[in-house]
Every structure is written in structure tokens, then in C-alpha cells.
Amino acid sequence: MTLSSGRRPRSPRTGRRRTAPVAAAMAAVFLAVGPSSAAGPVSPAHPSPLGIGDPLFPQLGNPGYDVTAYDIAFAYHRQDRPLDAVTTIDARATAPLRTLNLDFTQGVVDSVRVDGARARFATAGEDLVITPSAPLRKGAAFQVTVRHTSDPRSGTNGGWVRTSDGLAMANQANAAHRVFPCNDHPADKARFTFRITAPKSLTVVAGGLPGQRVRKGSRTTWTYRLAHPMATELAQISIGRSAVPRRTGPHGLPVRDVVPTADRTRLEKWLARTPGQLAWMEKKAGRYPFETYGVLIAHATTGFELETQTLSLFERDLFTSDQLPRWYIESIMVHELAHQWFGDSVSPRRWSDLWLNEGHATWYEALYADERGKASLERRMRKAYGQSDAWRAEGGPPAAPAAADPGQPIGIFRPVVYDGSALVLYALRQRIGRAAFERLERQWVLRHRDGVASTADFVRLASTVAGRDLSGFLHPWLYGRKTPPMPGHPDWKQSEKETTKGAALPGARAGRHAVRYSVPWAVKPG
């Protein structure tokens, strides 16, 4: 993710199992799901919200099951009306279950079925609490179908994004359950199928590859399937008057972009950069991990760009403004592309492992600019080092970030998880050498492909690749309140003038309301 100071604010199946549980529901008496909603027609006794205990989002995710697949059908009418929806979740119980919880809010639930039988349901906080007609035994495979609506009209904290002529999605960090019932935590990745019905005058594109398209009267149903498991926060659907230019990437990879039809020609110079950027990233991190890629350029104001899986979301203004140098815009594109390896293919086990996503994406963003002679990596890291103590004081150390303020979930995307975390990677490269560092990067994404991984996993692998225990070196860099000395640069010091809250380098995103597209460290535009 890259915050638009540029979140950036604004990430073959191995069989490795995910750790967090979740199974889910499928679509549309009506129960409004939300903090003030009433219980369903038949309520479980004493429903309560659950969570898997994530330090930053303790109510996210649900224990007792593991989701294997989502099949989500949406019927779109207008952007100012709720979508009718059916969410079907295939899951396996990891414990005996008399009830099970799904994360869901901002919708109206019509009915719930478990293995085809009607189930009781109620709400508790932002959970949909379901009581199957019979308890589920440990190890049992089961299916939940929820009929519901999905409301795009009240999305101030993520979920549906209203564009000039339709909708897109921005579910990071904790907003997928504002769109569809799910186990809304990246630790429980699953396969996804989307079926979207919309007026035939509109174009629908979702993550993954297209399947059957059926036109019936004035409406068309589009189907998309993702070939690899995905975290709920990375789902993407675009509905609007769009052009879909196509091209070929490395190894014949299909590349498809989604842009406003009126801007197709104007945006081509940016779209044409993607195959080269893919080839550049493959040299750094190995083969692209998914079945397709492309950029979705939305005519909307989000305040960030976002690494939705196989179809990264960008604001139109990023490419149509004349305020930014071309190389800088390309580096933002590389930031979101790098997330496909770091954050999407390898997802965080907990949200406090976010530094692995954003630190790596910022690293490759900065390296791309450096190798093209546009902005020095060393200069950028030195400036980051000077501000690192202030960033840690404001937002916590890279691997133990402070929780966001209430009602501001993307507040976790602070400078310390961007340039502050890329600084950790720079320090590691200084310590173990460039060759070992590059081996580590490739082994990391290969070993954990299509899975989840933690900070401890990274430290262990780094130690293995380096041939010596690096925990003593990395622990203060990842968890210390103060920034350790930089190997090879004894002259680097903390800035005497502390960074003010919200100030940020590109990559060191301060939050959704950061000053847009500031480039304070850059060399001459070009």
C-alpha cells in the first residue's frame, strides 16, 4: 500500500496451511449487520464477537475453522444502491463448533444456511454469529451460504470505493467484512471466485482470470477466479465504463489493465511500463507468483494506492497530475507491484508483521529509482536513519507497531513501516553482504509462496542464509525503541530536529491524510 504522499497509501499452491481460522457465508426476514442492528429472526443465546487475538485488530478473524474457498455473487444496480449478494464459504472445522462467527457489517442478512440446512443467526459487534442445525465436529468440511446485501454508501473506513461511474474495492486493512461475510484476517487465505451481474453497458473486472460471461436481457454476469489463495483484504472488483487494454509480460504472462474509457489513450504511456517493471522485479525476487497482473486506475479519491492481488488499485490523479516527476510515479507503480511477492503471495501472519509487506515494497521502490539514476538509495536511507528514532517514538518499532487510533484503522500505516522498515533491510544487507541478502529475498518468497509468514520466520531464514545467528543483530532493529548504529556508516546520526507527526518521506507513509505526493528527498525531477 502506498499513501498518496505517494499509502502507497498507497500485496502453484504448496499445500502449506494457513494458521488463522475462518469460513464464511453467501448472500441476501432482514437483519441489519452493524453496531446498532437487532438480532436475527431466531437468535443464538448470548452471541458474542470473537477474534483471533491479533495485537492490532483483536476482533478480526474467528477461531475454530479454516476457510478454503469463497464464491461471491454480487448483483450491481447503481452506485448509490446496495448490491444484492450471496457469499458461499467452504471451510473445515479445526475444533468442535456449536456456533461459528463470520466478520460482517454494513449489510443486511436475509438468510444463512450451513450445508444446505437453515441456520439461526444473530449479530454481536461486527460479527455474524451462526448456529448450525447440528454441531460441526472437528475436521469436518462444511459450507456456509449467506444471502445479504452489500452497501457502498457509507464507506469512510474502506470497503467499496465509489468512482466517477461505478465502484472499486479498497479493503485494507480490516474492511473486507464491510463488503462480504468472511474470516477477515490475512492469516486465513483462501481461493476466490467472483460472479458479478451488472448492466450490459458496464465493464466488470476482478482479480484473477475471466471465466464465463453470460448476457441475459439488459444485464451481463461476469465470472473471475483466482488461481492462488488470497487474503480477504486483497480482493478487487471494478465496475464502470472502463477500457481493458491487454499486453504480454515476461514468460507470456497475461497483463490486463482497467482504466476509464475516456483516458485510455492518455494513460497508455504508463500502462506500457508494466511489462518492463515485471521483468525488473523478477530479476530481484524470482518469477512473478500469480496468473495475471495489471493496474486498475480509478477515477476516485482514496488518498492511497493499494496492492490488491493481481490488479493493483491506483488513483487517476497520480497519472494525470503534472506535479510529479515520471520516475517517481514509476517507482510508486513498482511499490505496488513488489507487494504481489511481499504481502500478497507471502502474507503477514499478524498485522504487526506489516513491516515485511511495506518495508520490502518500499525497498524495491527505492532500489528501482536508485538503479535508474534518479534518486540515491544510500541518500534516502541516510535521511530515513536520521528520522528513525522519531518515527519509532510516534508509531512504535517496525515489528511492534502501535495500534491505530479508534476509528482510524489505516493509522497503522505510519512512516516506520515504510522507510523505517526499508531501513532494517538496508542494515541487514550491510551486515550480511549484497549476495547473501539477494539469496535471502528469493528464498523468502519461494519458501512461503501462497502462505503466511511472521517476523520470526524472517529472522530464522536470514540466519540460515547468512550461516550465523542474526537474532541478536535484528532484534534491536525490529523491536528497539532506539535505532541501532548502521553497519558501515558510523557517521550516520539521528536528526537533531525531530520529525513532526504526519511528515513523511515517499514510502514512509504517514496515513490517509498525508500531504499528497511530497518528494522532499528527491533529486531533480526527470
Describe the structure.
This protein has 526 residues and is of the alpha+beta class. The chain has 10 helices and 26 strands. The strands form 9 sheets. Strands 2, 3, 4, 6, 7, 10, 13, 15 and 16 form a 9-stranded mixed β-sheet that branches. It starts with a strand and ends in a 47-residue tail after the last helix. The relative contact order is 0.14.
Short description:
By secondary structure, the chain is α+β, with helices and mostly antiparallel strands. The protein has ten helices and 26 strands. It is globular.
Query: Number of helical segments?
Result: 10
Approximate strand percentage: 15-25%
Largest sheet: 9 strands, mixed
Q: Span from first to last CA?
A: 24 Å
Note poorly predicted spans.
5-43, 498-526
Q: In one word, what is the shape?
A: globular
How many strands? 26
Give helix % range.
10-25%
What structural class do the secondary elements suggest? alpha+beta
pLDDT averaged residue by residue: 87
Oligomer: single chain
Q: Rounded to an integer, what's the Rg over CA atoms?
A: 22 Å
Keywords, separated by commas or semicolons:
526 residues; 24% strand; disordered C terminus
